[in-house]
Design goal:
Helix content of chain A: 55-70%
CATH superfamily of the largest domain in chain A: RNA polymerase sigma factor, region 2, helix turn helix motif
CATH class of the largest domain in chain A: Mainly Alpha
Number of helices of chain B: 10
Order of helices and strands of chain A: HHHHEHHHH
Order of helices and strands of chain B: HEHHHHHHHHH
Shape of chain B: elongated
Oligomer: heterodimer
Strand content of chain B: under 5%
Largest interface: A-B, 71 and 52 residues
Number of helices of chain A: 8
Strand content of chain A: under 5%
Shape of chain A: globular
Chain lengths: 169, 214
């Protein structure tokens, strides 16, 4: 596969990666309408950038870069404007979170909340860490050194753990 | 519970709920979906259009005033036109750069370019400040100087020199390094500058993020 210009192939890749798209949307947007707009924007940007995908590179690095760059730009734009203007009919439906009452769901909600509280770039870093990407790939996606990745992950993990401890007291 | 295990559980629940339902992809080919992120360049294109109209108007005035008796008017407006042409050219360059931003670059590269372009309005502003002295000279005339030379040299010339000094000082000092200075906050404190100031702050965040921390 040279580029991602084939629609069927592209749709297949989106279906395979829908969970990460959802998690990125959830980490950068607070309400359903924003999340749907962002998901649409990410898919649009992935499609638009299809020609830039080079089979010599890892697909996930390319996809994470586009999805996270789009999410950060979208988040910063929405935060500036303070309101969301719908583009019309949404082509992507994202259901609201399952607000199940079990302890696990409540911990998942807390983790999402604490990640949302991190700065934009730290948020991207922690999503990639939790997605079990190697330090090398995280460094490549973000554009910083592996040493820097390791230091920042350690600090953010500590921050998240402290927040969990505080919230459980 | 370990953070990664919690994240995996989150992943599993998303899969179960099939939370993303992609209705149709026709929009990808028919371009029904317009990117929301193009708004920045759309705004800049309007500014370029307005800038060209303003320059055309000034040129019209110059062409219709070409006479030795209106030398101060013609020279002042010509200087204003030059600064406006430079500003419009810089704006055009920025629009081209906005279209060249590649989301498949690393986050640091792409976000730095985006933030720099958002903050670039500041660059244009400092260039435009250089034209202000000419707004205090365009109404000068030989008749005005001859009829009251004292007032001209004691009031008009010092005012023009003051504008020269102020505009040059602003040109030198309006930059990202001074964003926390009190005078900067007063000058750029209004809401229309919020996005520029936030972009500058984000550039600082990016620099901090890039820095190897021990």
């Amino acid at each position: 596969m040279g580029t991602l210009t084939d629609t069927e192939e592209f749709l297949q890749l989106i279906q395979e990666n829908k969970r990460i798209i959802f998690k990125i949307c959830n980490s950068y947007c607070h309400n359903k309408s924003d999340r749907e707009d962002l998901a649409q924007e990410i898919i649009y940007q992935l499609w638009k950038s299809g020609n830039s995908f080079n089979a010599d590179h890892k697909f996930s690095t390319w996809m994470y870069r586009i999805a996270l760059n789009t999410a950060i730009s979208f988040y910063r734009k929405e935060k500036r404007s303070g309101s969301v203007v719908s583009l019309g009919e949404h082509v992507v439906d994202i259901k609201d979170d399952d607000d199940g009452a079990d302890a696990l769901q409540s911990n998942i909600n807390l983790l999402q909340k604490f990640i949302n509280e991190l700065k934009e770039l730290d948020r991207a870093l922690m999503i990639l860490y939790l997605e079990e990407k190697s330090y090398g790939e995280i460094a490549e996606i973000l554009g910083i050194t592996e040493t820097n990745v390791a230091t920042k992950i350690s600090r953010n993990k500590e921050k998240l753990k402290q927040k969990f401890l505080t919230s459980n007291h | 519970m370990e953070l990664k295990n919690l994240w995996k559980e989150y992943d599993r629940r998303i899969e179960e709920a099939k939370t993303i339902n992609l209705k149709t992809f026709e929009f990808l080919q028919t371009q029904k979906a317009k990117s929301k992120l193009n708004a920045l360049s759309t705004f800049k294109k309007w500014v370029i259009f307005a800038g060209i109209l303003w320059i055309a108007f000034l040129v019209f005035l110059i062409v219709n005033s070409l006479a030795i008796s209106k030398i101060y008017f013609v020279l002042s407006l010509s200087a204003i036109v030059i600064f406006n042409i430079i500003a419009v050219a810089v704006y055009i360059k920025h629009v081209i750069l906005i279209h060249e931003i590649d989301n498949s670059e690393s986050l640091i590269e792409a976000q730095q370019k985006t933030a720099e372009l958002q903050a670039s309005t500041l660059q244009i502003t400092r260039i435009l400040f250089l034209q202000t002295p000419f707004y205090s000279t365009f109404f000068w005339s030989q008749g005005m100087i001859n009829s009251n030379p004292t007032a001209f040299f004691l009031i008009s010339v010092p005012v023009a020199l003051l504008f020269c000094f102020a505009s040059f000082w602003l040109y030198r000092n309006i930059n990202y390094k001074n964003v926390d200075k009190k005078w900067f906050k007063i000058l750029f404190g209004s809401s229309e500058w919020t996005s520029v100031v936030k972009a500058i702050q984000f550039m600082k965040e990016i620099e901090d993020f890039k820095r190897e921390s021990m």
